[in-house]
Amino acid sequence: AALPRRYVLCEVVSEEPRCRQCIEDRAVGLAVRDAVGRVHGDYGLGCVSVSFTVKYLNAYTGVVLLRCRKDACGLLCSALPFVRQLESRNQRYPCVLNTLHVGGTIRTCQKFLIQYNRRQMLLLLQNCTNEEDRQCIQKSLLSCSLTEEQSQSGDEEDDDGTE
């Protein structure tokens, strides 16, 4: 049977406009692992690393979906406020990870994200400088589904009936 998992939906927030281009799985994963290691030491890092992965990422909206084991979720969530930067191509971009939602399945996070994106779309579109940006943002938001290859890992099931 699959281990119970939690999915943590976060948003990368940065004053630095170029930060968007460095939002990639590897950079986010390294920044989160680094924060867990600093806050909880090797033990915490070991607990979180077992099943930790970046499941979804949207560079336009800055939305990131992290997966971890249920018993390590508290360690992960308590370390997220200590992420201070993302590093890409030897450049460091200051940012913070704002936790939006913690769910038991990818589907519950997706439902939350759809509602959240509806509220955010108006704000994003107001800040567009040209039609191309506007269309890119709309396309990105409208296609935001947290889908993945259908696997036998049990990611979609509610592991223990709780959300």
Automatic annotation (TrEMBL):
Respond yes or no to whether keyword Nucleus is given for this record.
Answer: yes
Q: Which InterPro entries match?
A: Pop5/Rpp14/Rnp2-like, RNase_P/MRP_POP5, Rnp2-like_sf
- Major location (coarse): nucleus
Domain of life assignment: Eukaryota
Q: What is this protein called?
A: Ribonuclease P/MRP protein subunit POP5
GO terms in the biological process aspect are: rRNA processing; tRNA 5'-leader removal
The alphabetical list of record keywords is: Nucleus, rRNA processing, tRNA processing
Gene3D superfamilies, alphabetically?
A: Ribonuclease P, Pop5 subunit
- Oligomeric form and interacting partners: Component of nuclear RNase P and RNase MRP ribonucleoproteins. RNase P consists of a catalytic RNA moiety and 10 different protein chains; POP1, POP4, POP5, POP7, RPP14, RPP21, RPP25, RPP30, RPP38 and RPP40. Within the RNase P complex, POP1, POP7 and RPP25 form the 'finger' subcomplex, POP5, RPP14, RPP40 and homodimeric RPP30 form the 'palm' subcomplex, and RPP21, POP4 and RPP38 form the 'wrist' subcomplex. All subunits of the RNase P complex interact with the catalytic RNA. Several subunits of RNase P are also part of the RNase MRP complex.
Question: PANTHER family, from UniProt?
Answer: POP5 HOMOLOG, RIBONUCLEASE P_MRP SUBUNIT (PTHR48414:SF1)
Provide the Gene Ontology terms for cellular component. multimeric ribonuclease P complex; nucleolus
Molecular function terms, GO-annotated: ribonuclease P RNA binding
Give the UniProt family note.
Belongs to the eukaryotic/archaeal RNase P protein component 2 family.
Where is this chain's protein located in or outside the cell? Nucleus, Nucleolus
One Pfam family named in its UniProt record? RNase_P_Rpp14
User: Keyword Nuclease: yes or no?
Assistant: no
Q: Which organism is it from?
A: Piaya cayana
Summarizing the function annotation, the protein's role is: Component of ribonuclease P, a protein complex that generates mature tRNA molecules by cleaving their 5'-ends. Also a component of the MRP ribonuclease complex, which cleaves pre-rRNA sequences.
